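Researcher: Here's a chain I'd like modeled. Treat it as a single chain, no partners, no ligands.
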Amino acid sequence: MDHKNLKKIKETLSSTLPSAAQRWLNHVLPENVTVPYQIIIRQEGEMEIRGRWTAFTAKGNYQGAPLSFNWKARLRMVPGVWIVAEDGHSDGSGWGGAKLWGVVPMGQRTDPEVLTVQLIRNISELAWLPELALLDPELGWSDAGEDAFEIRCQAGEQEVVVQFTVNNQGDIVHAYSPSRPYDIPGGFAEAPWHYKFDDHREFDGIRIPSRAVATYERSDGAWEYFRGQVISVVREKDHF
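Model: Modeled as a single isolated chain. Structure tokens:
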């Protein structure tokens, strides 16, 4: 898909796309943007695991037609011990798990709730993927006020929703889901969840937030568990 096709999509949706979403896309995307086959984002940061903040490096591969992603992170637990965590969804299935030294399985979840978890995450991370935001026809857009818009999608039989807040400059600063599952012994619970984005900057001419913090607002208190920094963005134009 070339930039003319994306421009045509934007023109077609201009009468129905929420005003805050239009302001965001017009602010962050150059006029002559070329839509990539996939976007590869590398990150570093730290994740809270069992009460301890652990450094990670990660690589995420994202596609937009239809929306999907695969994200792998390497976490150094103690000297000589590291794990690879992997999250993602594609073709109506979601997964999450980890392997000791990248080889020995430590648990894998593919329950229907995992698709909901990962789809909410993927939609929220469109803040990093503005070129892909308009490509999936399964995403439903709606107005949520002067400075906000919502994106809805089906995760199996469940509808998920993410609300985005756009600041005066046109940058996304917050993505919020009123109900996102998380693991508990024997199953899943649900709680409001959100990303806070800041430090917006350009990567190859496209403006995105470089920092993000993820938090669950659980009944026993806020659980901030992810602090990430975008290190690089590669936009692959061709599918080989």
